């Protein structure tokens, strides 16, 4: 299956820790795993197979994971694991480097070399990108400089990559197989660009990778500025020091114009907020204005054109569903 969800909740308590160890062996690499919480172990994972790469979100009780030369000789997937830490801090030792990474950091390790790592806290969470060594165009000796190094992902390319990984896992289940393959290519390009930037090797990136990275940067800029009613292709082109024609050509390959991208992402945010019961206090007009629609008639027309129903219908259905689920 392209997207799979697994959890210890479905496994007998006495078998949960062994089940998790087997899952890590299959999905990441063979390691010796120990835990002080083996008797009451809880964990879960969601994996999206994107063709060129896999992305896995994991949450688990504290463990220690040791990969030895013997295990590497037995089996080596030959991948770099790039993890976005989203829970308690994690520590890692590899290639004489030692580090502790916290939520919002990226952490890299190599399955072809011994490592030792674990969790500094009560609950680990991470989104891991499995990057085949053969798919990366960067020199291995440069990538090796980054293993077991704390790499903040709160700004620039790191923030773009982190946001993209989170979005991929949230939307992969709704994608067609060909869309998942496209997402895999974009994931590989963004991860490659991030690593290249860290080791001053941007010149080794292919033209296609550079195009994907530029598109991701522009899309992130659009998302940050959706509330601005004056956001338009000319503003975006000027912000990124490119001609309007170049911007339109860049988006032409995606099958969606710049203006259509702005409109779609605005409407997606509006629909999400209208369906959120925590935002009941916000009127439809306020929701529309929050995402750049300051003329109610324009918003209603665009919303119905995109979804076939009015904003008020979407809100009413969401509230009815939420009220039906509420305990009585």
Question: What can you tell me about this protein's structure?
Answer:
The protein has 328 residues and is an alpha+beta fold. 44% of the residues lie in helices and 20% in strands. Strands 1-3-4-11-6-9-12 form a 7-stranded antiparallel beta sheet, with helices on both faces. β7 and β8 form a beta hairpin. α5 (177-198) packs across α6. The longest helix has 22 residues, at 177-198. It is globular. The protein starts with a strand and ends with a helix. 31% of the residues are buried. The model has no long low-confidence stretch (mean pLDDT 88).
Keywords:
single chain; alpha+beta; seven-stranded antiparallel beta sheet; five-stranded antiparallel beta sheet; globular; DNA-binding; Helix-turn-helix domain-containing protein; HTH_AraC; Homeodomain-like_sf; transcription regulation
| Chain-averaged pLDDT | 88
The largest beta-sheet arranges its strands as 1-3-4-11-6-9-12
Note the overall shape: globular
Uncertain parts: none
Strand content: 15-25%
Share in helix: 40-55%
Structure at a glance:
The chain is of the alpha+beta class. The chain has helices spanning 16-27, 69-74, 140-143, 156-171, 177-198, 207-224, 233-239, 244-252, 258-274, 284-290, 296-307, 311-325, and strands at 3-7, 32-34, 43-49, 54-60, 64-67, 79-85, 90-94, 97-101, 105-110, 115-119, 124-132, 151-152.
């Amino acid at each position: 299956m392209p997207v799979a969800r697994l959890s210890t909740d479905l496994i007998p308590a006495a078998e949960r820790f062994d089940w998790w160890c087997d899952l890590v062996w299959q999905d990441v690499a063979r390691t010796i795993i120990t835990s002080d919480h083996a008797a009451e172990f809880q964990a879960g994972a969601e994996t999206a197979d994107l063709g060129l790469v896999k992305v896995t979100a994991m949450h688990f009780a504290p463990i220690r994971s040791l990969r030895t030369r013997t295990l590497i000789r037995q089996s080596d997937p030959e991948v770099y694991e790039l993890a976005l830490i989203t829970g308690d801090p994690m520590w890692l030792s590899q290639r004489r480097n030692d580090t502790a990474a916290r939520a919002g950091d990226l952490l890299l390790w190599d399955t072809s070399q011994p490592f030792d790592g674990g969790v500094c806290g009560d609950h680990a969470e991470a989104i891991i990108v499995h990057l085949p060594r053969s798919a990366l165009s960067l020199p291995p000796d440069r990538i090796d400089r980054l293993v077991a190094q704390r790499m903040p992902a709160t700004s620039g390319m790191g923030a773009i990559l982190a946001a993209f990984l989170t979005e991929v896992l949230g939307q992969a289940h709704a994608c067609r197989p060909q869309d998942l393959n496209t997402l895999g290519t974009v994931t590989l390009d963004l991860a490659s660009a991030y690593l290249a930037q860290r080791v001053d090797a941007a010149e080794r990136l292919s033209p296609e990778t550079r195009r994907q990275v530029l598109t991701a940067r522009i899309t992130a800029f659009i998302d940050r500025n959706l509330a601005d009613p004056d956001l338009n292709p000319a503003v975006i082109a000027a912000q990124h020091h490119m001609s309007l024609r170049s911007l339109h050509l860049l988006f032409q390959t995606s099958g969606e114009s710049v203006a259509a991208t702005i409109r779609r992402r605005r409407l997606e945010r509006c629909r999400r907020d209208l369906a959120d019961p925590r935002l009941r206090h916000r009127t439809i007009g306020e929701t529309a204005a929050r995402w750049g629609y300051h003329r109610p008639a324009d918003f209603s027309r665009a919303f119905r054109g995109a979804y076939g129903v009015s904003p008020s219908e979407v809100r009413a259905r969401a509230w009815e569903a939420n009220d039906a689920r509420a305990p009585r």
